[in-house]
Input
Amino acid sequence: MKILACISVVPDTTTKITFTENNTQFNTAGVQYILNPYDELAVTRGLEIAEANGGTLTIVHVGKAEAEPVIRKALSMGANEAIRIDADPTDAQYVAEEIAKIAVGYNLILTGRESIDYNGGVVCGMLGSLLGITSINVVTRIDYADGKFSFDRDIDGGRETVSCAGPCVASAQKELCEPRIPNMRGIMAARTKPLQVLAPQAAANYTNYASYELPVAKTGVRLIDASEAGKLIDILRNEAKVI
Amino acid sequence: MSVLVFAEISDGKFKKATYEAVSYGRQVADMLETKVVAIAIGNGADASELGEYGAHVVKTINTSDSFTADAYAAAVNASANEVSASTVIISNTYTGKSLAPRLAQLMGASLATNVVSLPDTSNGFQVKRSVFSGKAFAFVNLQRDKKVIAITPNSFEIKSFGDTAVIEAASTNVGSTGLTIDAVNKVTGKIPLTEAEVVVSGGRGMKGPENWHLIEDLASALGAATACSKPVSDMDWRPHSEHVGQTGITIKPNLYIAIGISGAIQHLAGVSSSKVIVAINKDPEAPFFKAADYGIVGDAFEILPQLIAAAKN
Ligand SMILES: Cc1cc2nc3c(=O)[nH]c(=O)nc-3n(C[C@H](O)[C@H](O)[C@H](O)COP(=O)(O)OP(=O)(O)OC[C@H]3O[C@@H](n4cnc5c(N)ncnc54)[C@H](O)[C@@H]3O)c2cc1C
Ligand SMILES: Nc1ncnc2c1ncn2[C@@H]1O[C@H](COP(=O)(O)O)[C@@H](O)[C@H]1O
Output
């Protein structure tokens, strides 16, 4: 069985978001980059399934060389090999088209539910459509048995169990598994695992980011005395008019 | 040319988010001087309702098939072709977010999800979307002739246009899917977190799952959904589906009440777009007070009974 996990590299969750050049560029100064938390789940579960079924897990990332420490981390978790498509993507369409070109022949393709920077949540569905295979968003369980993949997926107001023989693409949601922490042996082994760098094949950009803005800061909290807490309800009803 | 709105049906009814999407679609159509067509796929919902919120035409596909992204995308794409839609509006629910990218591919359209503004067409076609889990907004240009826009629930008012829509059966059906649906488990009678107007949320300060009846009582008195911080769901006090924040669900209710939650940056990322925020915490230095509109410094176990009593009143 061949499994492909798509990883994005994102600012650490504690990053204070600021912009430069008249709010047209994300300020990367001092930002620590990490493996997107949902992709960590995709890699972990992909590995568990590959290991249980005598398969392999390949990592793919569309990005520049700066991402290689994060790609190595995924390799140190246990992935067999990695592909980096050498481009600086600014658009999910571009990412999906580049990945689609190398994604043929895999039984299962995994992404994260969304990248925590641009929060598109769209690469999974785009890949499914480009490859002409089914896509399953926000999965909290993946199992493989009797030649079929079985998934639990979050739906509006509930959960659904679905299955297919593959190939298919699914996006990882929290609860899928506990992220695997690389051990020393894994870290040593990752140093020599194959990391292939491919040139991009000139995919299209369908969007471009013009500028950014920070949310309006709160003007200050209005405190209500704990002994008169009930007053809060009155204020929310009659002044803020939100209940 | 026209604007097409995907009118989502859940449990035999249109969702509130669907009315928002139709009203949004109408405003886009007015801007582009064209008509708005809604495509309603499912069972039971009263298509004529959508005229009130702005639809000129409602096309219906009657089916009891569960949603699958591949099958629905084919149906919506066929409708988009039939009515020469340049722009498709979808609500950013789980269903909408699964559908949008596949549809955009089939249409060759530019796609934006998490959209929180009407388009600005003064110079191209630009929308505002939330990024960095609500820590910032971005203005993004949609460069293709066709556009798919997925709007964030609770971001747009439902408007009354008082029109009567023309209702007709769509000439297409849902396509085939590569997926088998084995079981559906719907929680009925609960407000989905992403669509709730009021959310009552508890953190580690609630001490244990046995105290959650206080959160639930306040929520039910306010008609609210319940949520929690990450450690609370990690410890299995509450289901993972209630975890809000940067690595959980991002929400945008009119009112978010945070009880016994410190206000870590990762938590705030998922809730800071809420219109009004209330923080209740015994520590006056808790960071949440800096992000809140109203606050009460005190013990949750003394404050909650007072709030529940007042809310029931
Ligand atoms: C990669 C990463 C991602 C993360 N993603 C998320 C996320 O998506 N969502 C999220 O929530 N967190 C997230 N976190 C965790 C986050 O950093 C905080 O640890 C978490 O939000 C704290 O939860 P809490 O406020 O419930 O608990 P605590 O920080 O323990 O705070 C409890 C609060 O309750 C108050 N309190 C205690 N007793 C009472 C009482 N009797 N009455 C009133 N107040 C009381 C205390 O003063 C304190 O402020 C993430 C962390 C990391 C590293
Ligand atoms: N540059 C990238 N390279 C590889 N995979 C990516 C990239 N960007 C996003 N992805 C994958 O797509 C998922 C969803 O990303 P997005 O649609 O951008 O929110 C991520 O969790 C990754 O699995």
About this structure: Helices of chain B lie at 16-31, 49-52, 69-82, 94-107, 212-222, 230-234, 265-271, 300-312. Chain B has two domains: 2-169, 198-312. The first helix of chain B runs from residue 16 to 31. Residues A 6-8, 36, 38-39, 60-63, 89, 92, 95, 111-112, 114-115, 118-123 surround adenosine monophosphate (ligand 2) (CB under 6 Å).
